[in-house]
Amino acid sequence: MNHWIVAPVLLPLVTGALLLVLESSGLTAKRTLSVASTVALIPVALGLMNVAATGEQQIYYLGDWPAPFVIVLVLDRLSALMLLLTSVLASASLFYAVGGDDTRGSDFHALFQFQLLGVNGAFLTGDLFNLFVFFEILLIASYCLIVHGGGSARIRAALHFVVLNLVGSSVFLIALGTVYGTLGTLNMADLAVKVATADADSIGLVKVAGLMLLVVFGLKAALLPLGFWLPAAYRSATASVACLFAIMTKVGVYAVLRVHILIFIDPAHGAFSLETWLLPLALTTIVLGTIGAMAASELRATVSYLVVVSVGTLLAALSLLTRDALSAALYYLIHSTLVTGGLFLLCDLIGRQRGTVQARLDQSQAVYQPLLLGSLFFFAAISVSGLPPLSGFVAKLSILQAAQASTAVVWVWGVILISGLFVIVTLSRAGSAIFWRTEDTEGEARPVRGREALATGGLLACAILLMVFGASTLDYTRATAEQLLQRSGYIDAVLANESVGVPASMRIPR
Amino acid sequence: MEAMFSIVIGVLIACGVYLVLRARTFPVVLGLTLLSYGVNVFLFASGRLVADSAPLALPEIIVHPDPLPQALVLTAIVIGFGMTAYAIVLALKANGELQTDHVDGEAGE
């Protein structure tokens, strides 16, 4: 067993606990520890990705109990990719936060680490109940982070966020109870086996559970009828928190990818197809997000709605369920997480230099550093709206290409292209309002600090890296998509040590 | 026993959903609590209901209840307890900041 697999869960756990113990020690010590631990996740994730790239699922049996009773962590191409993405985004977000965001409330660093613990755990676990537990860990950390900095706008958004997610957790538990009651297991690989052999009586209940799980993951991902909490929550959160939250919607998308592809889309039963349920909802999400972005009167709200658009695009591509569509969706996922994260940081930098107007799209004083912020914004806008030559273009192009094989090609092409056009209009309007339609007064002299510029620029520069290394990234995502659709590999790997070393008297007849 | 059990779950969930939809923070918190009670009882039943037996695989016990859902319920209770505590604190904070107990922060009765 490769013990490094558990490191992305243990490292934030230990660091977070240490940070709580060291509460009374200086700010510098806490910052150093937090940054060091978060940045250390990048080489760990790179190493794990190198291991996963061999194409074999690496299984970590906690306590070395036999499957399917053991709690497993599974490392495959998809989880390695998500771990790397999380560590890069979190490092940038934390670099930005140590510029001052972390002093606006208590225990920022400990909560940040617990959030990472939940996210990393959710990406690694091979067990539905532990997926629930890690979801709760990341949620409770996010409940606290979302009110970081205080203020009535944050409290109001947090109240909606918390209540909705608590109801979502109840639905998650009901789905888990239904799954366990009908199939008698919660291990994902074992579930995939059991669903295939389920009898006609129980398959209906299993489908209900699958749809309930889709509701829960849709709530996390902000899919249309469940996504109205997102814009208020993201626009009012502190910049570095909003940046980190760019990965949160992707956790929901990841869960759909993992759970539904592995367990609930079994051709043997002609079980519910994701295309019928997910595709129309995803396309409507894109439309709603675009309308919201156009109507928004503040840059942060615009970016929040762009997150909604990106979730819709991602789920639309994902619901086509072909190798090419999944590969394009994964590439788009990397691109949109990093670029929207960078955009949230950029909004904060812009807002700070515009005095009382903040990031509202009203006429006001010019920003203090128009050249730096303007070019960063221009760059980010090109990338996020999918204009050539940056990564957004590559991502959208591959999604459109992959959709050609689908029967819904007209809808996918139409919605994505028209939404792209309106996003360009929205962002150019926002850009000209902020940088050109200005009064003749000097901006507030709060120049961007080096660390903040590095964090923001670094995230946005990933758009260039993703473009330059586009071919190799797409190779990796294509291999990931193949591995996802080749479900027997995952199942065999997890169940490989089934009942090895268990005395016969303890074996439960299956 | 099964009928009784399912009626209890149904009543708990129905009351919970009704209270959550009241859109005032105190009923909402109560509703969330009832919801989690209903869910916990449901989860408990997913291992099948067995009367007069211990959840131990001892040779003399022929029909024993499944211990796993009981462990799951324990986890869910702890998580639900923590979440409810946080929701109460947040509701109090919202009441102080927004001067109203409406979840949208709207003033008035």
Portion in strands of chain A: under 5%
Compute the number of helices of chain A. 20
SSE order of chain B in H/E notation? HHH
What proportion strand of chain B? under 5%
Helix content of chain B: 55-70%
Q: What is the multimeric organization of the chains shown?
A: heterodimer
Ends apart, CA distance between termini of chain B:
43 Å
Q: What is the C-alpha radius of gyration of chain A, as a whole number of Å?
A: 22 Å
CA-based shape of chain A:
globular
Q: Strand order, main sheet of chain A: write it out.
A: 1-2
The largest pleated sheet of chain B is described as:
none
The total of beta strands of chain B comes to: 0
Assign the CATH class of chain B: Mainly Alpha
Q: What is the structural class of chain A?
A: mainly alpha
Rounded radius of gyration of chain B (Å): 18 Å
Uncertain stretches of chain B: none
Report the largest inter-chain contact: A-B, 28 and 37 residues
CATH topology assignment of chain B: Helix Hairpins
Number of strands of chain A: 4
- Stretches of chain A where pLDDT is under 50 for at least 5 consecutive residues are 501-510
Largest sheet of chain A: 2 strands, antiparallel
